[in-house]
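S.,

Sequence below, as promised.
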Amino acid sequence: MTKPGRKRARAASGAPGGSRHEEPGEGGADEAVAFIAEQVAVLRKLAERHRLDVLHYLLGMTQLEADEHLRLRTRRKLS
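The prediction came back faster than expected:
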């Protein structure tokens, strides 16, 4: 138990960006977009395998949007 008026110190984790118990994508917008792009790629392959053409197309558009977001963010950081 902590004394009143004092905050408990957080335990340091080896994971950059916070606790290792965080859900994927909780490390910031860039990490969230990278996670989404990765997962969408897997879902897109699944849609293609099962000939779900509209889902395959929409997931492809989602993947392009995520990749473009990451590309633009990387470009801004280099400036």
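The helical segments are 29-49, 53-78.

Coffee later?
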